[in-house]
Amino acid sequence: MIAPALRFYEAIEDRASLTDSELVSYFLYFLTVEQGDTAASAKAINECFAVCDLRVPGRTAAYLSEGTRGRGAKYVKAPSGGYRLHRKLSETLSARLGSRRVVVQTSAELRSLEAAFPDGPKKKFLAEAIDCFEANANRAAVVMSWILALDHLFDYVLAHRLDEFNAALAANPDKRTKKINTKDEFSDLKEVKFIELCRAANIISNDVRKILDEALGVRNTAAHPSGVEVARSKAVSVIEDLVINVIRKFQV
């Protein structure tokens, strides 16, 4: 998993040209704005340098102290200890980071979904899907998230609702399979058919069916070469919907 500080650092477009002093300001922004800390110490900022495999400055504490002085002060000393950015510098950095900052925040929100998973193959699979999102591979992120959600539903139906599913299948016969006995046999059904049968068996609600139908449509777009761009916002929506409304909802 990519550390939040490293994700933030890699979202800075001109990071290679920044001085230690400038990076101190960026990491102070990360800690107090992105992470929501009331204030940040020199030690916390140095930890950000270390996480990003950067040389830890010897003057971080001095940069912070010096930055509180004069008319052009960059930092404000917090009453409880530590430092915050002066409002003017905070606004400047926010504008400079722009949409990249939104991507970092969104990544953090997706990682919070990952953190709610118990350790195991599914958590690792979701982590890799989010890695794809962070690498701007939106198509891959959507496809992996869909595979994860469908695999989870297979497990759920097999463990808890197989009789109801097979009853719905018997009432709505499929040419390739008449009854499900093992997980591998679900792959004989088209995905659309599987969703329809889950709804017919009252395994999923109509709202969940709509979520799955929409996600499947995006997956189909993402999985084939075309001129249609899969936006980051669309990838986030699909991942969140599938994790929150399918994977978390149907506990195996």
Give the helix level as a range of percent: 55-70%
CATH architecture of the largest domain: Up-down Bundle
Low-pLDDT runs? none
Which fold name corresponds to the CATH topology of the largest domain? Four Helix Bundle (Hemerythrin (Met), subunit A)
- SSE succession: HHHHEEHHHHHHHH
CATH classification, class level of the largest domain: Mainly Alpha
How many domains? The number is 2
Number of helices: 12
Q: How many beta-strand runs? A: 2
What overall form do the CA principal axes indicate?
elongated
Computed over alpha carbons, the radius of gyration is: 24 Å
Percent range for β-strand residues: under 5%
Mean pLDDT: 89
User: Termini, distance in Å?
Assistant: 25 Å
Q: Largest beta sheet: what is the strand line-up? A: 1-2
Reported for the largest beta sheet, the result is: 2 strands, antiparallel
Structural class: mainly alpha
Provide a concise account of the structure shown.
This protein has 252 residues and is an all-alpha fold.
Descriptive report:
The chain has about 250 residues and is mainly alpha-helical. The chain folds into two domains: about 90 residues, no CATH class; about 150 residues, Four Helix Bundle (Hemerythrin (Met), subunit A). It is built from twelve helices and two strands. The chain has a two-stranded antiparallel sheet. A hairpin with a 5-residue loop joins strand 1 and strand 2. The protein is elongated, with a radius of gyration of 24 Å. It starts with a helix and ends in a 5-residue tail after the last helix.
